[in-house]
Protein backbone atom coordinates (compact mmCIF):
# COMPACT_ATOMS: atom_id res chain seq x y z
CA UNK A 1 0.00 0.00 0.00
CA UNK A 2 1.33 3.46 -0.86
CA UNK A 3 0.33 6.95 0.13
CA UNK A 4 -2.31 8.63 -1.98
CA UNK A 5 -0.55 10.08 -5.01
CA UNK A 6 -2.84 13.08 -4.71
CA UNK A 7 -1.38 14.18 -1.40
CA UNK A 8 1.14 17.01 -1.54
CA UNK A 9 2.12 17.38 2.11
CA UNK A 10 1.66 15.11 5.09
CA UNK A 11 2.18 16.28 8.66
CA UNK A 12 3.09 13.44 10.95
CA UNK A 13 3.85 13.17 14.65
CA UNK A 14 1.41 15.94 15.54
CA UNK A 15 -1.38 16.20 18.06
CA UNK A 16 -4.45 17.69 16.43
CA UNK A 17 -6.90 20.09 18.05
CA UNK A 18 -9.47 19.75 15.29
CA UNK A 19 -12.05 22.10 16.88
CA UNK A 20 -14.80 20.11 15.16
CA UNK A 21 -16.80 19.71 18.37
CA UNK A 22 -17.58 23.38 19.00
CA UNK A 23 -16.56 24.60 22.45
CA UNK A 24 -17.19 21.24 24.12
CA UNK A 25 -13.72 19.89 23.50
CA UNK A 26 -10.62 20.43 21.39
CA UNK A 27 -11.61 17.50 19.20
CA UNK A 28 -8.22 16.02 20.02
CA UNK A 29 -6.41 13.43 17.98
CA UNK A 30 -3.25 12.43 19.83
CA UNK A 31 -0.38 11.04 17.70
CA UNK A 32 -2.17 12.25 14.61
CA UNK A 33 -1.35 13.06 11.03
CA UNK A 34 -2.88 15.38 8.46
CA UNK A 35 -2.58 15.44 4.67
CA UNK A 36 -2.98 18.42 2.35
CA UNK A 37 -3.62 18.69 -1.35
CA UNK A 38 -4.42 21.73 -3.50
CA UNK A 39 -4.77 23.96 -0.46
CA UNK A 40 -7.31 21.72 1.29
CA UNK A 41 -7.19 19.18 4.09
CA UNK A 42 -7.70 15.82 2.39
CA UNK A 43 -7.05 13.36 5.21
CA UNK A 44 -6.55 13.40 8.95
CA UNK A 45 -6.53 10.79 11.64
CA UNK A 46 -4.34 8.68 13.85
CA UNK A 47 -0.84 8.28 12.50
CA UNK A 48 -1.19 4.56 13.11
CA UNK A 49 -3.90 4.51 10.44
CA UNK A 50 -1.41 5.58 7.77
CA UNK A 51 -0.17 2.88 5.37
CA UNK A 52 2.48 0.47 6.70
CA UNK A 53 4.91 1.38 3.93
CA UNK A 54 5.19 4.85 5.44
CA UNK A 55 6.44 3.70 8.84
CA UNK A 56 9.23 1.74 7.11
CA UNK A 57 10.32 4.88 5.23
CA UNK A 58 10.10 6.99 8.37
CA UNK A 59 12.25 4.66 10.44
CA UNK A 60 15.31 5.34 8.27
CA UNK A 61 14.68 9.01 7.64
CA UNK A 62 17.28 11.63 8.38
CA UNK A 63 16.22 15.13 9.48
CA UNK A 64 12.75 16.67 9.75
CA UNK A 65 11.39 16.12 6.29
CA UNK A 66 11.54 13.59 3.51
CA UNK A 67 9.63 12.64 0.41
CA UNK A 68 7.73 9.39 0.13
CA UNK A 69 5.88 8.61 -3.12
CA UNK A 70 6.30 12.33 -4.02
CA UNK A 71 4.54 13.42 -0.82
CA UNK A 72 6.43 15.93 1.37
CA UNK A 73 6.47 14.52 4.88
CA UNK A 74 6.87 17.02 7.72
CA UNK A 75 7.64 15.84 11.23
CA UNK A 76 5.70 17.90 13.80
CA UNK A 77 7.82 16.47 16.63
CA UNK A 78 4.86 15.96 18.93
CA UNK A 79 3.70 19.58 18.73
CA UNK A 80 0.05 20.67 18.52
CA UNK A 81 -1.63 21.55 15.24
CA UNK A 82 -4.73 23.78 15.30
CA UNK A 83 -6.73 25.55 12.61
CA UNK A 84 -5.19 28.90 11.63
CA UNK A 85 -6.58 31.50 14.03
CA UNK A 86 -9.44 33.83 13.08
CA UNK A 87 -9.81 37.39 14.38
CA UNK A 88 -13.44 38.07 13.45
CA UNK A 89 -13.77 41.69 14.64
CA UNK A 90 -11.14 44.39 14.04
CA UNK A 91 -10.90 48.01 12.98
CA UNK A 92 -7.20 47.81 12.18
CA UNK A 93 -7.15 50.27 9.28
CA UNK A 94 -7.07 53.82 10.68
CA UNK A 95 -5.04 57.01 10.65
CA UNK A 96 -3.08 58.36 13.63
CA UNK A 97 -3.49 56.96 17.12
CA UNK A 98 -4.94 58.06 20.44
CA UNK A 99 -1.89 57.84 22.74
CA UNK A 100 -2.19 61.55 23.42
CA UNK A 101 -5.76 61.13 24.63
CA UNK A 102 -4.74 58.10 26.70
CA UNK A 103 -2.10 60.20 28.42
CA UNK A 104 -4.45 63.16 28.97
CA UNK A 105 -7.03 60.93 30.60
CA UNK A 106 -4.41 59.47 32.94
CA UNK A 107 -3.25 62.99 33.78
CA UNK A 108 -6.77 63.61 35.04
CA UNK A 109 -8.07 65.73 32.14
CA UNK A 110 -11.85 65.75 31.78
CA UNK A 111 -13.76 64.29 28.87
CA UNK A 112 -14.58 67.86 27.79
CA UNK A 113 -10.93 68.94 27.86
CA UNK A 114 -10.00 65.91 25.76
CA UNK A 115 -12.83 66.65 23.31
CA UNK A 116 -11.74 70.30 23.11
CA UNK A 117 -8.23 69.14 22.26
CA UNK A 118 -9.75 67.22 19.32
CA UNK A 119 -9.77 63.81 21.04
CA UNK A 120 -12.17 60.92 20.67
CA UNK A 121 -13.29 59.24 17.47
CA UNK A 122 -13.27 62.66 15.76
CA UNK A 123 -9.47 62.66 15.88
CA UNK A 124 -9.28 59.21 14.27
CA UNK A 125 -11.77 60.27 11.58
CA UNK A 126 -9.78 63.38 10.69
CA UNK A 127 -6.45 61.48 10.68
CA UNK A 128 -8.00 58.73 8.53
CA UNK A 129 -9.44 61.24 6.07
CA UNK A 130 -6.07 63.00 5.77
CA UNK A 131 -4.10 59.80 5.17
CA UNK A 132 -3.50 58.49 1.65
CA UNK A 133 -4.20 54.86 0.77
CA UNK A 134 -0.47 54.19 0.94
CA UNK A 135 -0.17 55.79 4.38
CA UNK A 136 -3.12 53.84 5.73
CA UNK A 137 -1.68 50.65 4.29
CA UNK A 138 1.73 51.33 5.82
CA UNK A 139 0.25 51.95 9.27
CA UNK A 140 -2.10 48.94 9.16
CA UNK A 141 0.54 46.49 7.96
CA UNK A 142 2.48 46.17 11.25
CA UNK A 143 -0.79 45.56 13.09
CA UNK A 144 -1.81 42.80 10.72
CA UNK A 145 1.75 41.43 10.73
CA UNK A 146 1.60 41.14 14.52
CA UNK A 147 -1.60 39.09 14.33
CA UNK A 148 -0.25 36.99 11.48
CA UNK A 149 2.90 36.14 13.43
CA UNK A 150 0.67 34.97 16.28
CA UNK A 151 -0.99 32.41 14.00
CA UNK A 152 -3.86 34.40 12.53
CA UNK A 153 -4.78 33.41 8.96
CA UNK A 154 -8.17 35.16 8.64
CA UNK A 155 -9.05 38.68 9.77
CA UNK A 156 -12.18 40.77 9.51
CA UNK A 157 -11.58 44.51 9.04
CA UNK A 158 -14.26 47.17 9.30
CA UNK A 159 -14.49 50.62 7.77
CA UNK A 160 -16.04 53.35 9.91
CA UNK A 161 -13.42 56.07 10.34
CA UNK A 162 -13.99 57.71 6.96
CA UNK A 163 -17.67 58.56 7.52
CA UNK A 164 -18.02 59.98 4.03
CA UNK A 165 -18.29 58.09 0.79
CA UNK A 166 -14.77 58.64 -0.53
CA UNK A 167 -13.07 57.83 2.76
CA UNK A 168 -15.18 54.80 3.61
CA UNK A 169 -14.34 53.44 0.14
CA UNK A 170 -10.67 54.27 0.74
CA UNK A 171 -10.62 52.32 4.01
CA UNK A 172 -12.22 49.26 2.43
CA UNK A 173 -9.79 49.37 -0.49
CA UNK A 174 -6.84 49.52 1.91
CA UNK A 175 -8.25 46.56 3.84
CA UNK A 176 -8.34 44.66 0.55
CA UNK A 177 -4.77 45.68 -0.35
CA UNK A 178 -3.51 44.12 2.88
CA UNK A 179 -4.27 40.71 1.38
CA UNK A 180 -1.59 41.40 -1.25
CA UNK A 181 0.96 42.09 1.48
CA UNK A 182 0.47 39.06 3.73
CA UNK A 183 -0.96 35.55 3.29
CA UNK A 184 -4.09 36.33 5.30
CA UNK A 185 -7.73 36.05 4.22
CA UNK A 186 -9.35 39.46 4.74
CA UNK A 187 -13.10 39.79 5.17
CA UNK A 188 -14.31 43.37 4.89
CA UNK A 189 -17.26 44.90 6.72
CA UNK A 190 -18.83 48.23 5.84
CA UNK A 191 -19.39 50.22 9.05
CA UNK A 192 -20.47 53.59 7.68
CA UNK A 193 -22.90 53.76 10.64
CA UNK A 194 -20.09 53.77 13.21
CA UNK A 195 -20.51 57.36 14.44
CA UNK A 196 -21.95 60.63 13.24
CA UNK A 197 -19.38 62.78 11.47
CA UNK A 198 -19.21 66.32 12.87
CA UNK A 199 -20.67 67.78 9.68
CA UNK A 200 -23.88 65.81 10.40
CA UNK A 201 -23.81 66.42 14.16
CA UNK A 202 -27.49 67.35 14.38
CA UNK A 203 -28.69 65.43 11.37
CA UNK A 204 -28.40 61.68 11.91
CA UNK A 205 -31.15 60.95 9.38
CA UNK A 206 -29.37 63.02 6.77
CA UNK A 207 -26.17 61.08 7.40
CA UNK A 208 -28.01 57.76 7.18
CA UNK A 209 -29.42 58.86 3.81
CA UNK A 210 -25.81 59.04 2.61
CA UNK A 211 -24.91 55.71 4.27
CA UNK A 212 -27.86 53.85 2.77
CA UNK A 213 -28.36 55.60 -0.55
CA UNK A 214 -24.84 56.59 -1.56
CA UNK A 215 -22.11 54.74 0.34
CA UNK A 216 -23.64 51.28 0.43
CA UNK A 217 -24.62 51.14 -3.27
CA UNK A 218 -21.08 52.20 -4.19
CA UNK A 219 -19.51 49.69 -1.81
CA UNK A 220 -21.68 46.98 -3.37
CA UNK A 221 -21.00 48.03 -6.95
CA UNK A 222 -17.24 47.90 -6.33
CA UNK A 223 -17.59 44.64 -4.37
CA UNK A 224 -15.75 46.08 -1.38
CA UNK A 225 -17.60 44.49 1.52
CA UNK A 226 -18.67 41.04 2.73
CA UNK A 227 -21.00 42.36 5.45
CA UNK A 228 -22.60 45.47 6.93
CA UNK A 229 -22.27 46.54 10.58
CA UNK A 230 -23.88 49.25 12.74
CA UNK A 231 -22.89 50.68 16.13
CA UNK A 232 -26.27 50.58 17.87
CA UNK A 233 -25.90 52.46 21.15
CA UNK A 234 -26.94 55.64 22.93
CA UNK A 235 -23.73 57.25 21.68
CA UNK A 236 -24.10 55.57 18.27
CA UNK A 237 -27.31 54.92 16.35
CA UNK A 238 -30.78 54.22 17.74
CA UNK A 239 -32.67 51.00 17.12
CA UNK A 240 -34.84 52.67 14.47
CA UNK A 241 -31.78 54.10 12.73
CA UNK A 242 -30.04 50.73 12.91
CA UNK A 243 -33.07 49.15 11.27
CA UNK A 244 -32.74 51.54 8.34
CA UNK A 245 -29.20 50.36 7.69
CA UNK A 246 -30.17 46.69 8.13
CA UNK A 247 -32.96 47.16 5.57
CA UNK A 248 -30.47 48.64 3.12
CA UNK A 249 -28.02 45.78 3.75
CA UNK A 250 -30.76 43.25 3.23
CA UNK A 251 -31.80 44.96 0.00
CA UNK A 252 -28.22 44.49 -1.27
CA UNK A 253 -28.07 40.89 0.02
CA UNK A 254 -25.21 41.60 2.40
CA UNK A 255 -25.01 39.75 5.72
CA UNK A 256 -25.42 41.82 8.88
CA UNK A 257 -23.30 42.23 12.00
CA UNK A 258 -23.93 44.60 14.87
CA UNK A 259 -22.09 46.37 17.69
CA UNK A 260 -24.75 45.79 20.32
CA UNK A 261 -25.51 45.98 24.01
CA UNK A 262 -22.04 47.32 24.85
CA UNK A 263 -23.04 50.13 27.20
CA UNK A 264 -26.79 49.56 27.52
CA UNK A 265 -29.47 47.16 26.31
CA UNK A 266 -31.28 48.68 23.34
CA UNK A 267 -32.42 45.35 21.89
CA UNK A 268 -30.10 45.48 18.89
CA UNK A 269 -29.24 41.78 19.10
CA UNK A 270 -32.91 40.88 18.93
CA UNK A 271 -33.40 43.21 15.99
CA UNK A 272 -30.37 41.70 14.24
CA UNK A 273 -31.78 38.21 14.84
CA UNK A 274 -34.85 39.23 12.82
CA UNK A 275 -32.48 39.86 9.90
CA UNK A 276 -30.66 36.53 10.35
CA UNK A 277 -27.51 38.45 11.18
CA UNK A 278 -24.17 36.68 11.44
CA UNK A 279 -23.22 38.04 14.84
CA UNK A 280 -23.86 40.44 17.66
CA UNK A 281 -20.65 41.84 19.11
CA UNK A 282 -19.68 43.18 22.59
CA UNK A 283 -23.03 42.27 24.29
CA UNK A 284 -22.07 43.02 27.91
CA UNK A 285 -25.66 44.20 28.55
CA UNK A 286 -27.44 41.52 26.49
CA UNK A 287 -30.47 39.96 28.24
CA UNK A 288 -32.02 36.50 28.01
CA UNK A 289 -34.68 37.58 25.49
CA UNK A 290 -31.90 38.75 23.17
CA UNK A 291 -29.97 35.54 23.72
CA UNK A 292 -33.01 33.42 22.88
CA UNK A 293 -33.58 35.42 19.71
CA UNK A 294 -29.93 34.97 18.72
CA UNK A 295 -30.11 31.23 19.34
CA UNK A 296 -33.27 30.94 17.26
CA UNK A 297 -31.72 32.64 14.25
CA UNK A 298 -28.35 30.88 14.55
CA UNK A 299 -26.30 33.96 15.40
CA UNK A 300 -22.87 34.01 16.99
CA UNK A 301 -22.02 36.13 20.05
CA UNK A 302 -18.69 37.88 19.60
CA UNK A 303 -16.91 38.62 22.89
CA UNK A 304 -14.36 41.44 22.93
CA UNK A 305 -12.38 41.21 26.16
CA UNK A 306 -9.82 43.79 24.99
CA UNK A 307 -12.42 46.59 24.91
CA UNK A 308 -13.87 45.39 28.23
CA UNK A 309 -10.39 45.61 29.75
CA UNK A 310 -9.30 48.88 28.15
CA UNK A 311 -12.53 50.67 29.11
CA UNK A 312 -12.31 49.16 32.61
CA UNK A 313 -15.87 47.92 32.10
CA UNK A 314 -17.43 46.11 35.04
CA UNK A 315 -20.57 44.66 33.43
CA UNK A 316 -19.65 41.13 32.34
CA UNK A 317 -21.23 39.61 29.24
CA UNK A 318 -23.90 37.00 30.14
CA UNK A 319 -21.66 33.97 29.64
CA UNK A 320 -23.77 31.57 31.72
CA UNK A 321 -26.93 32.42 29.77
CA UNK A 322 -25.11 32.12 26.45
CA UNK A 323 -23.93 28.67 27.56
CA UNK A 324 -27.41 27.72 28.78
CA UNK A 325 -28.94 28.58 25.40
CA UNK A 326 -25.95 27.20 23.49
CA UNK A 327 -25.21 30.37 21.56
CA UNK A 328 -21.76 29.98 19.97
CA UNK A 329 -19.24 32.42 21.44
CA UNK A 330 -16.49 33.88 19.27
CA UNK A 331 -13.60 35.94 20.67
CA UNK A 332 -11.81 38.77 18.84
CA UNK A 333 -9.37 41.62 19.44
CA UNK A 334 -11.65 44.53 18.39
CA UNK A 335 -8.28 46.10 17.45
CA UNK A 336 -9.02 49.83 17.22
CA UNK A 337 -7.35 53.07 18.31
CA UNK A 338 -9.96 54.23 20.83
CA UNK A 339 -11.15 51.34 22.98
CA UNK A 340 -8.92 48.35 22.21
CA UNK A 341 -5.49 49.30 20.84
CA UNK A 342 -4.55 45.65 21.16
CA UNK A 343 -3.18 43.51 18.37
CA UNK A 344 -2.63 40.34 20.29
CA UNK A 345 -4.93 37.37 19.82
CA UNK A 346 -3.09 35.31 22.45
CA UNK A 347 -3.86 37.99 25.03
CA UNK A 348 -7.53 37.74 24.01
CA UNK A 349 -7.46 33.99 24.69
CA UNK A 350 -6.04 34.70 28.13
CA UNK A 351 -8.47 37.54 28.87
CA UNK A 352 -11.47 35.53 27.66
CA UNK A 353 -10.54 33.01 30.36
CA UNK A 354 -9.41 35.35 33.15
CA UNK A 355 -11.96 38.16 32.70
CA UNK A 356 -14.96 36.31 31.23
CA UNK A 357 -14.26 32.86 32.77
CA UNK A 358 -14.44 31.00 29.49
CA UNK A 359 -12.89 27.57 29.60
CA UNK A 360 -9.76 27.22 27.44
CA UNK A 361 -11.65 25.07 24.92
CA UNK A 362 -14.40 27.71 24.70
CA UNK A 363 -11.78 30.44 24.19
CA UNK A 364 -9.95 28.47 21.50
CA UNK A 365 -13.26 27.69 19.77
CA UNK A 366 -13.87 31.46 19.86
CA UNK A 367 -10.90 32.14 17.59
CA UNK A 368 -11.28 29.05 15.39
CA UNK A 369 -14.61 27.38 14.58
CA UNK A 370 -16.82 30.11 16.06
CA UNK A 371 -14.65 32.94 14.72
CA UNK A 372 -15.31 31.37 11.32
CA UNK A 373 -19.03 31.13 12.04
CA UNK A 374 -19.18 34.83 12.94
CA UNK A 375 -17.85 35.54 9.43
CA UNK A 376 -20.08 33.06 7.61
CA UNK A 377 -17.07 30.82 6.95
CA UNK A 378 -17.96 27.78 9.04
CA UNK A 379 -18.01 25.49 6.01
CA UNK A 380 -14.42 26.26 5.00
CA UNK A 381 -12.37 27.61 7.91
CA UNK A 382 -11.79 27.26 11.63
CA UNK A 383 -11.68 23.46 11.82
CA UNK A 384 -9.32 20.68 10.91
CA UNK A 385 -11.61 18.57 8.78
CA UNK A 386 -11.53 16.99 5.34
CA UNK A 387 -12.47 19.51 2.65
CA UNK A 388 -11.60 22.52 4.81
CA UNK A 389 -9.00 25.10 3.78
CA UNK A 390 -5.50 24.03 4.83
CA UNK A 391 -4.94 27.01 7.15
CA UNK A 392 -2.95 25.50 10.01
CA UNK A 393 -0.93 26.66 12.97
CA UNK A 394 1.72 24.49 14.66
CA UNK A 395 2.43 25.23 18.33
CA UNK A 396 5.22 24.24 20.65
CA UNK A 397 2.88 23.64 23.60
CA UNK A 398 2.29 20.64 25.84
CA UNK A 399 -1.51 20.89 25.59
CA UNK A 400 -4.02 23.28 23.97
CA UNK A 401 -4.83 25.02 27.27
CA UNK A 402 -1.27 26.36 27.29
CA UNK A 403 -2.31 28.70 24.45
CA UNK A 404 -4.75 30.37 26.86
CA UNK A 405 -2.74 30.00 30.04
CA UNK A 406 0.23 32.13 29.17
CA UNK A 407 0.99 34.92 26.74
CA UNK A 408 4.08 36.90 25.85
CA UNK A 409 6.10 33.94 24.62
CA UNK A 410 4.98 33.11 21.10
CA UNK A 411 4.79 29.31 20.77
CA UNK A 412 3.99 29.40 17.03
CA UNK A 413 6.54 27.30 15.14
CA UNK A 414 4.88 27.08 11.72
CA UNK A 415 1.92 28.63 9.92
CA UNK A 416 0.32 27.15 6.82
CA UNK A 417 -2.01 29.17 4.58
CA UNK A 418 -3.95 27.41 1.82
CA UNK A 419 -1.56 24.48 2.07
CA UNK A 420 1.65 26.50 1.86
CA UNK A 421 3.96 27.03 4.77
CA UNK A 422 4.23 30.83 5.23
CA UNK A 423 6.00 30.98 8.62
ZN1 LIG B 1 -15.70 47.15 17.16
CATH class of the largest domain equals Alpha Beta
The tally of beta strands, per DSSP, is 17
The end-to-end span amounts to 33 Å
3D shape: globular
Percent of residues in helices = 25-40%
Structural class: alpha/beta
Bound molecules: zinc ion
The CATH architecture classification of the largest domain is: Alpha-Beta Barrel
Please mark out the parts with pLDDT under 50 across 5 or more consecutive residues, or reply none. none
Q: Total domains, how many?
A: 2
Biggest beta sheet summary: 9 strands, mixed
Rg is: 22 Å
The averaged pLDDT comes out at 94
Number of separate helices: 16
Which fold name corresponds to the CATH topology of the largest domain? TIM Barrel
Output the CATH homologous superfamily of the largest domain.
Metal-dependent hydrolases
Classify the beta-strand content into a percent band. Answer: 15-25%
Brief descriptors of the model:
alpha/beta; Urease, subunit C, domain 1; 2 domains; nine-stranded mixed beta sheet; 16 helices; globular; binds zinc ion
Could you characterize the architecture of this molecule?
The chain is α/β, with parallel strands linked by helices and about 425 residues long. The protein folds into two domains: about 10-85 and about 385-420, Roll (Urease, subunit C, domain 1), CATH 2.30.40.10; about 85-375, Alpha-Beta Barrel (TIM Barrel). Helices cover about 35% and strands about 20% of the residues. It contains 16 helices and 17 strands. The strands form two sheets. Strands 1, 2, 3, 4, 5, 6, 15, 16 and 17 form a nine-stranded mixed β-sheet that branches. Strands 7-8-9-10-11-12-13-14 form an eight-stranded parallel β-sheet. The protein starts with 8 loop residues before the first strand and ends with a strand. Zinc ion (ZN) binds near residues 89, 91, 259, 334 and 336.
Amino acid sequence: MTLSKHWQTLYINVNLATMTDGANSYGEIINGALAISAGKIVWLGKQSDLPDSLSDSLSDKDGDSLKVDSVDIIDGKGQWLTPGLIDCHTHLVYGGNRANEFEMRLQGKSYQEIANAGGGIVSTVSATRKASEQELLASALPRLTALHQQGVTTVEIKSGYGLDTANEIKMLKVAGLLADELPVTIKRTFLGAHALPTEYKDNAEGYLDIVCDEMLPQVVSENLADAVDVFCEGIGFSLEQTKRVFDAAQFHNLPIKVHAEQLSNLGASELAANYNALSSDHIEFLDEAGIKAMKKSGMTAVLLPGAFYFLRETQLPPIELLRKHQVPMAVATDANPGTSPIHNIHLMLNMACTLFRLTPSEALAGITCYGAKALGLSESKGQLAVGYDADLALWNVSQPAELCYQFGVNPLTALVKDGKQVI
